[in-house]
Amino acid sequence: MVSVVGVREVGEVRRRHLAVLAYEVEARGLRWRLAGPQESVLSVVGPRTRRQVMVVATPVASGWSFLWSGGGMADVGRVAEVADRLARLLA
Predict the structure, then answer these.
(1) Rounded CA gap, 77 and 80, in Å?
(2) Residue 12 and residue 75: Cα distance in Å, rounded?
(3) Per residue in 44-83, pLDDT tens?
(4) 45: closest CA among 37, 55, 36?
(5) For the chain, is the Cβ count within 10 Å smaller at the N or the C terminus?
(6) Which residues pair with 35 in a beta bridge?
(7) Strand partners, 31
(8) Coil, strand or helix: which one is 64?
(9) Alpha-carbon distance 1 to 91, whole Å?
(10) Which H or E element spans position 13?
């Protein structure tokens, strides 16, 4: 049996994953805001360097992954590791 997830549900799951990541990057001293249609992109900024990276959460064959500019990719279950990587990238 194939399960079909509607666009609305995908958007809700995406925002939930991005919100969890936002909490983690804020705990590391980074600034963030949700942007794009239906808040589908997380913009993360290093407050000292003012460097910025855009992060999306997208469904993949095995679940969900975060993708960010510069070729970054990680499973959403590794949110603390992703936040650490972003903090280093924006330092």
Answers:
(1) 8
(2) 17
(3) 999 999 999 999 999 998 899 999 998 999 999 999 999 9
(4) 55
(5) N
(6) 41
(7) 45
(8) strand
(9) 47
(10) helix 7-27
Phi, psi dihedral angles at 3 (to 5 degrees): -95, 130
Q: CA end-to-end span of the chain, whole Å?
A: 47
- How big is the chain, counted in residues? 91
pTM (whole model) above 0.90: no
* DSSP label of 69: T
d(CA 63, CA 86): 21
Burial class (CB in 10 A: 0-12, 13-18, 19+), 63: exposed
Lowest mean pLDDT among 7-11, 71-75, 84-88: 7-11
Q: Which residue has the tokens 């990057």?
A: 25
